[in-house]
């Protein structure tokens, strides 16, 4: 059915017509909200608010921009509202029983960060011709983390211009602003992103022999609690983080010491592979004597060439988003 007919039906109160009208944009809008907010749960809330606002405001859609652009305008402003809210998720205290962590290298500021399942990325939109970032880089944990450190309006401008490739005039219209203001915000955002240096060497391609070999080596080292084998896989400046716990450990020696403390406390893990943010990831399950292994968290690896440059541990509450169970049977 033609879009004009669907719009007319939706304006008359036909919910199925509205669903058919917007369904093709849901994946890309969800990813957009995630980039803006850094949280899978917050992105889902923002997407639902976007659809509600669009449903209620469809009578005011005049067709001067495409329906897709209009939906991006709504989604961006719903995300800006969420970014400005004071109720971002708070940091949590260290919660691993029987393990006294080493002094952290620093305390992370972005404690609300959550992973994004690769399965939900499938079928997302291609960027416009003015985009500066490859889509794989623009969903990586390093990129998403760097975005969260920017002021909300700069995040919106950078994502709309450099990730999605909208023209400056389109972005200005979305934000009820001017082209000059958009260009100024973009200049500041680009400078901040360059300063943060979200990427170093390119990771091996997903599913390549290089990635498979490195990931397999990590699994062997972690499941066997082999700290020496683990250290051999890490870059000198490897970063370990664990949102919403703010502790961050940077450097091979301190990451090795932290991992050794976990293993010395008798903690042993089984890993189940998945993918998050375009990166190798694992559901981590804590073994128990003569019983099932219990979900302990989600690990996401950042690979740089043939080494691991970051290891991010998320809470076990994220596992259902990846279709992973709460427990594993005893091996």
TrEMBL record:
Domain RNA polymerase sigma-70 region: start-end pairs: 22-89
Keywords, ordered alphabetically: Sigma factor, Transcription, Transcription regulation
Region annotated Disordered, chain positions: 190-209
Domain SnoaL-like: 215-306
UniProt xrefs under InterPro entries: NTF2-like_dom_sf (IPR032710), RNA_pol_sigma-70-like (IPR039425), RNA_pol_sigma-70_dom (IPR014284), RNA_pol_sigma-G_actinobac (IPR014305), RNA_pol_sigma70_r2 (IPR007627), RNA_pol_sigma70_r4_t2 (IPR013249), RNA_pol_sigma_r2 (IPR013325), RNA_pol_sigma_r3/r4-like (IPR013324)
CDD domains, A to Z: Sigma70_r4
Keyword Lipoprotein part of the UniProt annotation: no
UniProt keyword annotation of Nucleotidyltransferase present: no
Residue ranges annotated for the RNA polymerase sigma factor 70 region 4 type domain, each copy included: 141-193
Pfam families xrefs: Sigma70_r2, Sigma70_r4_2, SnoaL_2
Record-linked PANTHER family: ECF RNA POLYMERASE SIGMA FACTOR SIGG, RNA POLYMERASE ECF-TYPE SIGMA FACTO
Protein family membership: Belongs to the sigma-70 factor family. ECF subfamily.
Complexes and interactors: Interacts transiently with the RNA polymerase catalytic core formed by RpoA, RpoB, RpoC and RpoZ (2 alpha, 1 beta, 1 beta' and 1 omega subunit) to form the RNA polymerase holoenzyme that can initiate transcription.
Protein name as it appears in the record: Sigma-70 family RNA polymerase sigma factor
Source organism of the structure: Actinomadura meridiana
The organism's taxonomic lineage, starting at the top: Bacteria, Bacillati, Actinomycetota, Actinomycetes, Streptosporangiales
């Amino acid at each position: 059915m033609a879009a004009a007919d669907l719009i007319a039906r939706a304006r008359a109160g036909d919910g199925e017509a509205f669903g058919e009208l917007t369904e093709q944009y849901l994946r890309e809008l969800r990813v957009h909200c995630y980039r803006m907010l850094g949280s899978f749960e917050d992105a889902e809330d923002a997407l639902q608010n976007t659809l509600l606002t669009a449903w209620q405001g469809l009578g005011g859609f005049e067709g001067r921009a495409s329906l897709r652009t209009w939906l991006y305008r709504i989604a961006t402003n719903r995300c800006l509202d969420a970014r400005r809210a004071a109720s971002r998720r708070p940091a949590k205290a260290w919660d691993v029983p029987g393990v006294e962590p080493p002094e952290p290298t620093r305390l992370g500021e972005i404690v609300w960060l959550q992973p994004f399942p690769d399965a939900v990325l499938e079928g997302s939109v291609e960027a416009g011709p003015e985009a500066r970032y490859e889509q794989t880089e623009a969903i990586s944990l390093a990129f998403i983390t760097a975005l969260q450190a920017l002021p909300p309006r700069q995040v919106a401008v950078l994502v709309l211009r450099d990730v999605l490739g909208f023209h400056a005039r389109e972005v200005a219209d979305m934000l009820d602003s001017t082209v000059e203001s958009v260009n100024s915000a973009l200049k500041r955002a680009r400078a901040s992103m360059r300063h943060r240096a979200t990427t170093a060497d390119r990771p091996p391609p997903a599913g390549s022999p290089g990635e498979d070999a490195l990931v397999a080596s990590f699994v062997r080292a972690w499941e066997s609690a082999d700290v020496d084998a683990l250290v051999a896989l890490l870059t000198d400046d490897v970063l370990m983080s664990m949102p919403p716990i703010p502790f961050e450990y940077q450097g091979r020696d301190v990451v090795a010491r932290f991992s050794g403390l976990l293993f010395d406390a008798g903690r042993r893990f089984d890993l189940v592979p998945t993918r998050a943010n375009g990166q190798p990831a694992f559901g981590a399950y804590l073994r128990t004597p003569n019983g099932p292994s219990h979900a302990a968290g989600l690990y996401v690896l950042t690979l740089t060439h043939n080494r691991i440059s970051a290891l991010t541990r998320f809470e076990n509450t994220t596992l259902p988003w990846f279709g992973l169970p709460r427990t594993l049977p005893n091996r």
